[in-house]
Structure formats: structure tokens, C-alpha cells
Amino acid sequence: MMEEKCGHLKYIELDNYKSYKGKQVIGPFSAFTAVIGPNGSGKSNLMDAISFVLGERTRHLRVTKLSDLIHGSVVGKPVSKTASVTAVYQMPDGTERRFSRFISGNTSEYRIDGTPVKVEEYGTALEKIHIFMKVKNFLIFQGAVESIAMKNARERCQMFEEISRSAEYKEEYDRSKAEMQKLEEEATFNLNKKKNIVAERKEARIEIDEAEKYKKLHSRWMSKRTELQLFKLYYNDVDIKRIREDLQQREEVVEQENAARVKIEEEIREKRRELGKLNRDQSSLEQDIKKCDQKVSKRKPEYIKVSQMLRHVSDKHKESKKALENARQQHSSHRQEMEQLEADYARVQALKEEYELQQNKKSKEQGRSLELEDSQLAEYHRLKQKAAEHTSDISAQLDALRREYDEQKDLFDSLERRKEEIENSLRLKQTELSDNQRRLQRLAEFIENSLKSITELSETEGTIREEVENATRRIDEINAELESVICQLGEAKVERHESSRAIRKQELIENLKRLFPGVQGRLLEMCEPSHKRYQIAITKVLGKHMDSIVCDSEKTAKDCIQYMKDQRIEPETFLPLDFLDVQPVDEKLREISDPPNVHLVIDVINCDPVTAKKALQFACGNALVCDTVEHARCVAYNMGERKKTVSLDGTLFQRSGVISGGASDLKARAKRWDEKQISSLMSRRDALQTELKEQLKRKRKEAELRTLQSQINGLEKRLKYTQKDKDSTNYITLQEREEKILSGNEEEVNNLRANLEEVNERLGMCQTKMQELEISINAEKAKMDTVEDTVLHDFCVSIGVENIREYEDRELRIARERDQKRMEFTNQLQRINNQLEYEKSRDTLDAVKRWEEAVASERQEMERCRKQEKRLKEEMEAEEMKKSNLEFQLGEYQQKSEQMDGELAELSRRLVSRKRELQKLQKDISQIEARLESKRSERHSLLQSAKMEDLQLPLKPGASSMPELESQLSAENGGADLNSEEMMRLYAMEARLPLDYKQLEKPLRMIADDKEVVRKADEMQSEVEHMQNELSRFQAPNLKASAKLGNVEQRLRTTEAEFEETRRKAKKARAQFERIRRLRYAAFNKCFLSIAENIDPLYKALSRNPGAQASLLPTNAEEPYLEELQFQCVAPGKRFQQMDSLSGGEKTIAALALSFAMHQYNPSPFFVLDEIDAALDNTNIGKVASFIREYSRTRAQVIVISLKEEFYSRADSLVGIYPDIENNCLVSRVLTFDLSQYEDTEDQ
């Protein structure tokens, strides 16, 4: 079977699809499944269903619209408005995935495992199992085999492009190639243009001497220039005077602000002194609270110890009371048993005496009734002697038997006594067992209570120990982290104070977030430069949007604005994410490598959360950040299309050509990035200090922990000794219980039980022996009686008895009965006396007294513990009350401290506000001074320019001539660079220069508006430039030609720049084209090499002949996809022929070899073939069937539609389709048959 390296198609479920009415499930499909049936039965519809569910378009399914796929639509009677096809695909791990496509009207819906998905997701899911909808690497339609064989070389090349997916690069390949060719043509054009301009430059140099009329306009031009220079100097003086007045006013305001600042600083110092005193008092209260905690901690272990002792003594007292009650009950039972035994003894003694009296009375009543006379008695003895002589042997035997019987009788009596002794011992052991059991019970209860106490204390100790250990560890961690935070704050050297305006802004953000969930925060709070070096540049690019508020929608922004209007809050800028029109990032800008280190501004900003990325992109756009101003200017204006760039020092180059800087202001604004981190560090420091106080409180429980550990150790020691006592008692109890009651194996009980069993056994044996002896004695006695009856017959008649035994038995029986009765009384009295002696030996009264003493002692100990517990509890409650009062006072102090902190913070904010105002004023003064310096420098430049251009500026009457003043200025300058002090002296001398501004026309001196001044200066400059242009039109020597030459050179530079830019673009376009060409070539060549490598072995395998040959050859080795692919086959036993010269079967074999080679390049898990055997004879059918059978077991699942038995008989299973007609409409029916259960007949 096919290796389970990939999944396989298991079922196809059709619902009213084409000729398949209703819901039909086709399958399961084997590794090699053949679909058979007569023509017109619907086999190809099954092929269409597989194509349809795997994404085939409508035009390839032999219908014009999707609704035609519904069953019955071909006859105008659709059975339903919907139809569907589902492919059940079994994954390698055994799970199933259902790929479904539903038709509703003229639309279709894709589903995966019942979930609707987009067609792109559907295609992606199919591609994950190597099924490509566009390439159709999983099926070959009916007749496609012949078409593959008959494709020309160009069509075959296009087919390879589709299979390799290199066609996906064709559009970009053509576009990039056309762009490359276009740019190369433009570069050629610019090169030719450059050559022409070079020729013009040569002509301009030839005309350099053609400027004769230039001198006529030169004088008027110089006059206009002098007037312009004097005009600029006049209004320069006006500006300097105005700036000095402004500077004086600002310096007066600075003095007032300094006085206010000093006053606030004095108030802050006073508040800090008060706060210091308050903090010292607060610290003293905290120390008192700490002392109360220490006292409580000191008393608490004692209290716990006393409480534990009280509970222990109470439990022990309860046990002692129970023991006392048991002892009293045992004593009462003991007394009752003694009284009963004494009564029994008296009763038996009385019965014995009564029996003796009765026997004496009976003896007197019987008298001498059977007494013989002396002659009769002598005769009796004589005859007895005679009988004894006749029975001497029998008598000897009888005596021996009687002696033996007496011995057994004595033994029996001895064993009876031994048995009684053993039973008494057992009773004694049972009593000891009962006592031990009670003692064991008390010990067990004590141990249980002790274990319970130890468990409770251990849990408490474990909790406290864990809390102390965690506190200790956490204190170390907090100290380390706190040290790091304080170090970082120290390095920052910043004490951050917020102005009231900043606080209001922060409160506004918090209120907006609370009222409107869509508000995310200020853009500044959601961004962070990836490195500090970018802070100034990012600050410049973000500009006013640094403080803009980001929200989710336009509605949220409007609600926020309305809320701010209602609350009379100053305006804010909002960035609603759903309203922003954000331009996409130009990816080409990320490819700039020259100059180096050019990045998109948005790429050097970390944004959190990600949702604010859109707002950040809106604020930044496609702005670029560069290392230097030169790099920024080059990227902005010298790389084709203009770009917005910024350097690291904050110089911004706009696309419009505007350049802005402001480094000092930017540095101040960029500090807000550091303030974010400092604010976070200060919050972390406060949180760590608060947590440190809490952890120190927890660590103070170490004393309580040590007390608990001491108590646990004491309990464990007492429990250890009690456990030993219990184990010893329990051992004895178990031992005797098992020996005497439960048949244990210990020595003493075993001996007693063994002795008892031995006695019982010997009693039985003795009794049996006695019975046997009695039988023997009776037998011998009978013999003896016979002899005696014979000898004493006459004597018995004479005394009136039947035989002599009647006389002897009556006297002897009476004597024996009397003796036996007396023996029974004696035994009973002895047994009762023994029991009395044993009971007397048990002193139960002593146990009662001992337990009464224990109960009294424990009662006293309980009373003592209760008093001590009450005392400790009252002391702890007093300390807790004192602590509560102190904490209340501490709370009041803390409130005062917080209030004072607030006042101090307000003063600090006021101070910061004053300082900032002072800084602003100082900044304004610096700016005014800079303006003043600029104006002085401008005046100096104007004078220097006049000197350099030989302009004679008019002076007041009586003043030195201009050349003399110029010599003085030159002497001051000294021809070298001046320091600031020397420059100030130079500026002072220039200020004293007596220029005669009355030489200017009065209207030129009466202009009040600065803009009008600039406009007039520009107008005058335009006149000068106009006159200069007029001069340039004259062929003045060395000037007009020079101007023309400069123009030509400028055009040349422009053309050279255009040429270099076009060449660079052409080079870039060629690189882009080469990249696409390599991608297209790699995709195509990978497919081509794979198929070319596999086609020959596959063709040999299909032909079943190693002499068969097949090859693929490209006509263009460098770009094979542009031209043709030659497919050549040499059939077995034949010479080389063109493809169209091969027979139908040979073409089919060749096409199948190519098809399977293409399938192996990008193998799908299953391969569906429609009537590929149509043109094959029986021999080739067998070859192809065998090959497909092998292919299905090693490569992929194969499903073939076939009409030839020689082919489909080799399949693993068959799907039979037969037609049926319902309502004039074809209905396809399905049968399946498993061939794998039958023996393979391939070799037969």
C-alpha cells in the first residue's frame, strides 16, 4: 500500500451536483481506484466534481454558469436551489478535513470543516497539502493526455511556466525589462545632450571678448548700488535702535522676576524646615509604633505558649477525669466481685456442713441392718479366703488394673487442677490486657491531641517562616532594585517638577480615558525612540503632534471636544484612527544605502500599543532621518524626487524647499523623552520604598517564629517519650491479646495455650484410659464374681442376699458417694478461696486515689494557666490600643505631611514656573542680543561689501573722508580674525561712522512698515539686477561672455546631473530586472531539471523496457522560458521519430511519462486521470496499469476513469457508475467494489 507520508482522498460527497441527484457519498477511495461505467453514465461529471471542489472555474466545467451545475438544470427542472461537493481528505495523522464548495444561484461558497472561508484561504489550505488550484497538479482531463503529447515546443514551454509558477514573474519581468530599456534610452539621450552643451560652452568661450557697451551703464549701476547700500544701512540703524530699547525693557522684567523667585525660594526653605520637623515627629511616632509591635511580638509567643499549655493541660485534665471515672468503676466492680466471692464461699461452706449432718443422720437410721453375727462373719471370711485362693490369678490381675486405674485417677485430678490454674492465669492476663488497653487509649488520645497541636503549630510556623523568608528575600531584591533606581535618578541629575499647566494636561488625559474608553493617550506617551541619538530628529518631525491625543474614532474625538468645551478646557489636537488618511510607506526608501544610515523616521520609533502605529505614520509620513545635515540635504534634493528629511541635530528639509532648524529649542523639547523615563523611575522608587516598609513589618515576625519553633520542639520531645510508652504498651497489649485471645505467637501465651491444650489432651487420654481400665476391671471382676458366687452361694442364702456383692456394694457405695461429695465441696471452697486471694491482691483503691490527686493537680495548673493567659492577653490588648492611638496620630501627621507636600509641590511648581519664565526671558534676551549681534554683523557686512565693491558712501559734512575711515577700520581689523572683544570695538567704531542718510530721498527714509522696507529693498535690488541684466546683454569685455559661460556651465552641470541620475536609475532598473530574471529562471529551471531528470526513468518504467529513451531540451539555455522546449522520445526497438510520427499508444505512453514527471515535481497527495487508456492497446494497457499500481503504492493515490477491463482489473477498488432516468433527466447511480480481497492476477 501507499506509504502514509501524506494524506489521501477518502470520500467525495455530492449533493444535487450535475447528474448526481440528492446526497451521494462516493468512496472510500483506495490507493489505486478505478471509476468505470458506460458512456454517458456520469463518470466525467465525477471528474468535474473533483475539479469543482478543488477550485476549478466555471468555464472549465462544461457549463456557462454555476447554476447549471445543479441537478436537473440541463432540462430546465432544477431539483434544488443549491448544490454542493465535499472532498473528505484524511490527514497523515488519521484526522479528516472536509473541503466543501456550495452553489447558491450563480455564486459559490467555500468551506473548510463546515466553516465558510475566502477563496484565498481555501487555496492556501489546499496548497498546504500540495494541491495547487491554478497549476492543477492533481488531475488530467479526458483527452488531455493526447493534447500534452501534441503540444508544440512553445506551448510546452508555457505549460512548464504554469507548473513551475515562473509565469507569476512574467508580468513583473516584462514591466522591469521595458523600464530598463526605457531608462537606458533616456541615458543615451542625455549623453548626446551633454555633448551638445559642451559644444555650446566652447562657443561661449570664443565670444568672451564681445562686451563693448558695458561701461556706459556702469556708472548708473554703481549709483543705484550705493543708494541700495545706504538704504540698507539706514534701516539697519533703525532696527538696532529699536532692538536696544526692547532689550532694556526685557532686562527690567528679568529683575522683577528674580525678586519674585527669591521670595518663593525663601517660602520653600521655610516649608521644608516645617516639613522636616513634621517628618521627625512622624519618625518618632513610627518608632513608638515599632516598639509596640515589638512588645506585642514579645508577648504573643508567651501568650501562644500559655494558650497551648492551657489547651494541653485541659486535654490532659479531661483524660485524667476519664481515667478517674474508669478507676472508680473498676474499684466498684472489684468490691462487688469480692462480696460475691465471700457470699459464694459462705454458701458452699454451709452446704458442706448441711451435707455432713444429713450423712450422720442417715447412718444412724440404717444402723446395723446388715451386720453379721460373729459366726457368720467368720464363715464369711473363710469363704472369702477360699474364693481368693480360687481367684488368686484373677485377683492379682484385678489389683494391677485397679492400681493402674488409681494412678490414672490421680493423674486426672492433677490435670483438672492444672487446667483450673491455667484458666486463672488467662483471666489474670485478660485483666492486665483491659488495663493496658485503657492506658493505651489514653496515650493514643494524648498523642492525637499532641499531633494535632504540632500540625496546627507547624502550619502556623510554616506560614510565618515562608512569610519571613519571602520578606527577607524580597527585601534584598528591593534594596538592590532601589539602589539601581536611585543610581539612575542620580545619574540623570534631574529633579522633575511639573507646571500647573502640565498637571492639568495630565489630569485631562486621565479624565478622558476614564470617560471615553476609545481614548488611548498622547502620541508622546505611546512612542519611544529606539535610541537617544534620534530624540531631537523625532521631536522635529513630530512637531505639534507630540502632544496630540490618539483615539479610536472620529465620534470619540468629537465627544472629547464637546466635553472640553463644556469644561472650558484649552483646545487639544485629536488623531482619530478611523479618520486619518495615511499614505502607505514607500518601501523603496528603505533601500537607500548611499549615503549610509538613512532610515525612515517611523522605523526608529518603538510604538506601544501597536494600534497607535497608524497615528504615528500619519505624523511622520515618509520622512527620513540622516546622520548629518549634508546627508539630509543630499537625500532631500539630489536623488530625483524630493523627499522630507531631517538630520540628527534637528535640521529639517521640506519637499517644498523650506529648511528649518532650531536646535536649542529642540533639545529642550527632546528632554521630554527623558522625563518619561525619570517619571517612571520616580514612581518605581516610591513603590519600592512603600513595599520595603511592608516587608520589614513581615520580617519582624522572626521572634514569633522562634517561639513557635521552641513550642513545636517541646511538643515533639514529649510526643517522642509518649510514643515510646505507647509503643511499649501497645506491644504488650497486642502480644497478650494475640497470645491469649487471638492465638498470637509470643512465648508466654503460646506456653499457656499449649499447656492448656496439652492438659485437655491428656485429660481426654486419661479419661479414655480410665474407661478402658474400667472395662477390663469389670471383666475380671465378673470372672471373680462367678467364682465367689459359686463359693459363697450357700452363705448368701443364709444371710438373705442374692449374692455377696449386694452386701459389699451397698456399704462401699455409700462410703464412696460420701467421699466424692466431700471432695466436690473441698474443691469449690478451694477455687473460691483462690479467687478471693487474687482479688485481694488487686489494690484498685490506690489507682482511684492516684487519679484523684492527678485531677486536682491539673485543675490547679489550669487555673494558673488561665490567669497567666488573661494577664498576657490584657497586656497585648493594651499595647494594641496604644498602637492604634499612635497610628491615629501618625495618620494625622501623615495628612499634615501630605498637605505640606502639596503646598511645597505647589510652591515648587510656582518656582519652576518662575524659573521657566526667567529662562524664557533670558532666552528672549539672548535672541534679542543675537538679533542685535546679527544687525551689527549685517552692518559690518554691508560696510565691508561697500568697501569690496568700491562704493563711496556719503558722510556728514566735516567728517573724515571715506578712505580715511576705511584705513582706520582696516587698522582695527589688522587683516586677521578678531576675537569677540575686538569685534565689539570694531562694531562700536562702525556705529560712530557719520553716514549722511539725508542723501537718501525722504520717501525712502519715511517707511514705517518692516515688510514695506523689505519690499522696497527687493524692488531696489531688482532694479540693480535689471540694470545688471541690461549690462549683461551688452558685449562688454570679459563680462557678457562670462555670464553666458556661467549659464552654459550651469546647464552642463544640470545635464550631467540628469545624465548621472538617469544612468543610476537605469543601473537600478537593470538590477531589478536581473533579480526578477533570476527568480523566474530559478523557478523554471528547478521545475525543468526535476522533470528532465525523472522523465527518462519514468518513460522506461512505463514502457517496461530499458531501451526506451525520453529527454527534454531547451532551445535557449540562458532564458528557456522565452522560447521552446523540445520533448523527444525513442520508443523501444525503434529509431528516433518526431512526436507526431509516433503511434497513438506511443504518444500516450510518452505523454503519461511527461505527466507523471510533472506530478513528481510538485506531487499532490492524489492524482486523478480521465480515460488515459483510450488509445492504448492491451499490451500497453498492462504496462500502464502495472506502473500506476506501483506508483500508487509509493508516490500518491491514483484515481483513474477507465472503460477497459484489462486496465481497471488491476485496481485496488472499483467505483461503478451507471445511468438511470427520472423525469426525462439522467441520474447517476454509484456502486463500489473492493478488489483488494481477491488474489492479484497480474502474473497469471
UniProtKB/TrEMBL annotation:
SMC hinge domain spans which residues?
A: 517-636
Write down the SUPFAM superfamilies for this protein, in alphabetical order: P-loop containing nucleoside triphosphate hydrolases (SSF52540), Smc hinge domain (SSF75553)
Query: For the region Disordered, what residue ranges are annotated?
Result: 312-339, 933-973
- Extract the Gene3D superfamilies matched here: 1.20.1060.20, 3.30.70.1620, P-loop containing nucleotide triphosphate hydrolases (3.40.50.300)
Coiled-coil region(s) at which residues? Answer: 166-214, 398-495, 678-790, 1010-1079
* A GO biological-process term: cell division
Q: Which InterPro entries match?
A: P-loop_NTPase, RecF/RecN/SMC_N, SMC, Smc1_ABC, SMC_hinge, SMC_hinge_sf
Instruction: Name one matching Pfam family.
Output: SMC_hinge
The organism sits in which domain of life?
Eukaryota
Q: Which of UniProt's keywords are assigned here? A: Cell cycle, Cell division, Chromosome, Coiled coil, Mitosis, Nucleus
Compositional bias segments (type: Basic and acidic residues): 312-325
A GO molecular function held by the record? DNA binding
Family label: Belongs to the SMC family. SMC1 subfamily.
Its predominant location is nucleus
Gene Ontology CC: cohesin complex; nucleus
User: By what name is this protein known?
Assistant: Structural maintenance of chromosomes protein
As for subcellular location, the record says: Chromosome; Nucleus
